[in-house]
Amino acid sequence: QVHLEESGGASVQAGGSLRLSCAASGFAVSSSCMGWFRQAPGASGKEREGVVVSGRLSTTYTDSVKGRFTVSRENAQNTLYLEMNNLRPEDTAVYYCAADFRLCLLGAEYVGKWGQGTQVTVSS
């Protein structure tokens, strides 16, 4: 059974850094399309924004995080990471790990499995 568990969310000041982790079970992170999404305060689940999606052949970031966020995998730990640098107040959101994509594209409509989310709060 596919299970995703995020950790690493916290409150930081603008310009700070965080690393989010997504521990996966039930499938191999090394050979799967996976991604990170976020839901801003007050937004509905349908407004969940794609941050990054990473497949075997390519990785796609949303424009607002390019150059600041980096996705990586630790295959031995079956874990996906999101390194976030130079954080901004507008990055404040609940961040969700995503897997079991119907298509490996940066869209919530393609996601088959979500983690429970981890809160990131960036203050100015």
In brief:
The protein is an all-beta fold.
Can you give a write-up of this model?
A hairpin with a 4-residue loop joins strand 7 and strand 8. The N and C termini lie far apart (41 Å). The model has no long low-confidence stretch (mean pLDDT 96). It is built from no helices and eleven strands. Strands 2, 4, 5, 6, 9, 10 and 11 form a seven-stranded mixed beta sheet that branches. By secondary structure, the chain is an all-beta fold.
* Cα Rg: 13 Å
Q: Can you tell me the overall shape?
A: globular
Helix content: under 10%
Number of helices: 0
Average pLDDT number: 96
Largest sheet: 7 strands, mixed
Q: What oligomeric state do the depicted chains represent?
A: single chain
Distance between the termini: 41 Å
Got a strand count?
A: 11
Order of helices and strands: EEEEEEEEEEE
Q: Regions with pLDDT < 50 over 5+ consecutive residues?
A: none
What structural class results from the helix and strand content? mainly beta
The fraction of residues in strands falls at over 45%
How is this fold's topology laid out?
Blueprint: E1 3-7, E2 11-13, E3 18-25, E4 34-39, E5 49-54, E6 59-61, E7 69-74, E8 79-84, E9 93-99, E10 113-114, E11 118-123
Parallel strand pairs: 2-11
Antiparallel strand pairs: 1-3, 3-8, 4-5, 4-9, 5-6, 7-8, 9-10, 9-11
Distinctive features:
mainly beta; about 120 residues; 11 strands
